From TrEMBL:
Coiled coil stretches, renumbered: none
Domain of life: Bacteria
Alphabetical UniProt keywords: Heme, Iron, Metal-binding, Monooxygenase, Oxidoreductase
Any one Pfam family match given in the protein's UniProt record, by short name: p450
Name recorded for this polypeptide: Cytochrome P450
Stored Gene3D superfamilies: Cytochrome P450
Xref: SUPFAM superfamilies: Cytochrome P450 (SSF48264)
Chain positions covered by the region annotation Disordered: 1-26
Similarity annotation: Belongs to the cytochrome P450 family.
Repeat among keywords: no
Amino acid sequence: MSQTASVPQGLPMERDAGPFDPPSQITRLREAHPVSPMVFPDGHEGWLVTGYEAVRQVMADTRFSNRQDVGVIHVPYETPGMPAAAEPSPQTPGLFISMDPPDHTRLRRKLIGAFTVKRMKQLEEGIVAITEQQLDELAKLSPPVDLVKQFALPVPSLVICELLGVPYEDRETFQSNSSKFMERDITLEDKMAAIGAMFGYLTELVTGKRATPGDDILSDLARDDDLTIEELSGMAFLLLLAGHETTANMLALGTFALLEHPAQLTELRADPSLMPDAVEELMRYLSVADIFYRYATEDIELGGETIPAGSTVVVSLLAANRDPHKFEHPDALDVHRKVRGQVAFGHGIHQCLGQQLARIEMRAAFEGLLRRFPTLALAVEAREVKLRTNMHIYGVHELPVTWA
Ligand code: HEM
């Protein structure tokens, strides 16, 4: 291998190229070896996939199993105390993101109706209302304020709580536990304690819904006798977590990115009809859910390499979305770009179930924020903004903003 692209020891995470760009080692690696060997911190060898075509191939090929995680987005080898997987992981009931067909198919199918484009369109008005209400609350505050706490986190949390039928008053429980669960460097013990607390809470909730169902997605699932309480809790866990962490980080990091690209921001403000394309471009450019793990169930040819059966394969969606072989000037944020084929929502059978919901939330939130706060600005220097390099979903911990 060339000197500029040596085998990575662990996953490069430091954002040395700037807060929005992939680590420079990842970019160099993609150019030299889009499918590269890597060594995990425990000495175990695996593969890192950074090229667009190869990433799509991995995600489209079910011989790369999703049973690499123990719990959603739970990352082996990075979590201190985590034993190395020698075979596909045991499955947690209901967590279909970490399952393969036919188990994955059976559970995902039960939710498809609730997340269709048509169903999401019907919910749009309610989502806009929630967003406007949060903007009213924001406008009452005296700046500087933390946009994460006051806007980016509440909007998707309120939306997913209402959809699922989770009381928003209980948000402290799920927000603090899911945030612990999302930390990279937390011990296995602490991670398991956070998962245990979430499951305890959700098991009680879905048991109540099975006894007295209401008008929400979890109640609809609870009416289905084919699903056990354990499966219902696992599905609730996945939906609740996936439904607020990702979108919240897109809203906060997306706002930061727009503020740091004032010419793009001005153009977007001048022509709000650009918003749907701009959201797609922000998804591509930021790819906050970057790293995903797969497990090779047999020897598989990929990008001129043979991935041996039993290997851990890591894909970087951010690297794929910045691949110059796919996107022109990939490192430029361009709100006029007509993005096609970006992979920030994944690809293949696990492609994001909530993508239409997320798009509607982001369009409403960015549109409302830019309209209601025409003088929005960072309240600190850009380099002082705390980046979530220690979390599974990237973004900012806080975004201090101000307005005139
Ligand atoms: C799956 C990203 C919002 C629910 C995924 C995957 C990605 C992703 C990359 C694929 C995982 C894999 O292949 O292993 C995002 C991003 C979002 C977002 C960037 C926000 C901007 C949402 C929302 C929901 C949601 C709002 C609401 C319910 C799910 C579920 C899966 C999933 C249930 C698992 C699908 C499966 O395994 O079949 N998401 N997501 N996501 N997402 Fe999202």
